[in-house]
Amino acid sequence: MTRDLTKGSIFKNLLVMSVPTMIGFSAQMVYDLVDIFWIGKISSDAIAGVTVFTTIFWVIEALNEIIGVSSISLISQAFGRKDIDETKVAIEQTITFKFIMAALAAIILSIFLEPIMSLFGEADLVNNGLEYGYIRMFFLPIMFSSYSVNTALRCIGDSYTPMYIMIFASIFNIVLDPIMMFETVPLLNIPGFNLGIFGAAVATIISQSIAFFMGFYILFSGRKGIKPSLKGLFRLNYHMDKELMTIGLPNGIEVFLRNISNTLVLGFVALYGNSAIAANGIAGRIFGFAFIPLIGFSMGGSTVVGQSLGANMVERSEKTTKIASLVSSSFMIIFTVVVVFFGNNIMSLFTQDPEVIKHGTEFLIYGSFGLVFLGYYFGMTTAFSGSGYNFPIFVSSIVSRWGVQIPILFIAISIFELPIIWVWLSYVFGDLTETFIGIIFYRQGKWKLKRVK
Fold this sequence. Notes:
Layout lengths: L9 H31 L3 H14 L3 H20 L3 H34 L5 H16 L1 H16 L4 H22 L14 H25 L17 H9 L2 H22 L3 H37 L3 H35 L5 H14 L3 H17 L3 H25 L5 H24 L9
């Protein structure tokens, strides 16, 4: 069912929208960790290859971010205004436009993938990354479309259906992983397909495809009170598509440049060898768990803010943002305490390579110190995403990554040749800068006046 978030307790609405999102993304992160767990059984070089591919792969996530962020404000504000026809058109165009963009991105990436990967290591690393990556790349339209369906459901107040879909897909992927990867399935001792790293990618794209078709059927069946048209998927709406490309453009550029900076950071990590790359990959997946509450409250809060602004309830939007910021920071404090005391034990679950464990533990400990501030920043972004005023996200990210983190890395690593700890510390300086700039924009209050139609 849909939910009117302009009424009732703000905190309850925030939890109703955020907690299912967090649970769904938690399930998704579990299968990401299961992937890296089984890949680690092959070799540390296999983890390194997948890490390099994934870092490059997510550069094109900028396209998903542009349209996805635009769709949050367009769908939620239209629904908040009780404009059902506009809500349906926004949903239809989001799915279609994002599918087209993903197909074009996959074609372009296929041309440059191998030469880019060759910059990070020798043949074994490149081959491992390509073996895992090519099939993931060509199923990018399905992946993006699945995100669109889940976003549409959340924007009309249904956070539970995406949660159930993500949990089901994650469990399916977890079961499928060892079956596809190994000749004999561990623990069960039954025959598998013995596809190695390629099998892990196959398991992922099968699970993502199932998730998409489940969500698509539920959304377009009209069960949720909104019934988009299948015909609407086969025609473009110039006005709506222009809005989809422009409202979230700052976010898209921000994500693109952020992921490019992540690629450059990985280049610095690569200077310390494949063990450092593998450690970066494992610790990065673990950090993904830290971001689950941030993503959950950001997405849930953005919907509450969007519907509230659509109904011209500015004070309600402001209260939502403040609650999201405080709760997100609290989660980050808990995560930081856990990794400080148990980082080594957590890393040991994924690899027995002592060098990988050492580097990964350092990354978890040092890298976590900026997350408390970043949690507060993510809460504030609900105001920007819900209103459609995404310029602050763009500025804070560009300055923090390209004006602070990358220069620190260049000076510390290239000039002074300091140890790898400075790679991990560079994230902390970037997080602090991003939060500080976000606070400045939030207090200016321009987001309170922004509306999309």
